[in-house]
Design brief:
Blueprint lengths: L1 H10 L2 H32 L4 H4 L1 H15 L13 H24 L4 H23 L13 H28 L1
Length: about 180
């Protein structure tokens, strides 16, 4: 989502950007609504492998459109990689996801899960400290001082969480 929105920001002038984001949102909503229904139809009529093959024409069309419409853009500044930040974010998010996935099976109060949550908290806290102190952070935390940015991140996060929870339970229901 961030990559497509940055492309929209780069390609469309300010007066056309609202319409472009509206089309982007509509196409995403259409895909979310029609994707499972069409996928179910393909599984019933063609077989489960068709669900994977159906994406190829869409990807090819998107790549062709990308090459024809989206202009080349590069950051003129040379930036170095934030390797400590990248490693800490990877370790923290891995430990968090591992604890959430394994928690139901191992027990939420088991030493394995509590240890994983501890590693996640420590690594993500260290990530925040590193990002605040590095000259070229992977995630500039100063962005979160802007209420429009913070609000957008929270709303998108809640929307994704609600969508995935709905998909999880709807899948169980339909099965």
């Amino acid at each position: 989502m961030p990559a497509t929105l940055s492309i929209i920001t780069d390609v469309f002038p300010r007066e056309e950007r609202t319409m472009a984001i509206g089309v982007w949102t509509g196409v995403g909503g259409l895909g979310i609504g029609l994707g499972p229904a069409f996928g179910g139809y393909l599984v019933d009529e063609v077989g489960w492998a068709a669900v994977f093959w159906m994406h190829i024409p869409f990807v090819l069309a998107a790549l062709a459109g990308l090459m024809l419409i989206v202009p080349e853009s590069r950051d003129q500044r040379s930036r170095s990689l934030d390797i400590p930040g990248g490693l800490l974010a990877t370790v923290g998010l891995f430990a968090l996801v591992y604890a959430i996935i394994r928690g139901g099976e191992a027990g939420w109060t088991s030493s394995e899960i509590l240890g994983s949550f501890g590693v996640a908290v420590a690594a993500l806290a260290a990530f925040a400290i590193v990002e605040l102190r590095t000259a070229e952070p992977m995630l500039p935390l100063k962005f979160f001082r802007r209420l429009d940015f913070t609000g957008s991140v929270i709303v998108i996060g809640l929307m994704m969480f609600a969508m995935f929870v709905s998909f999880f339970f709807l899948t169980q229901y339909f099965q």
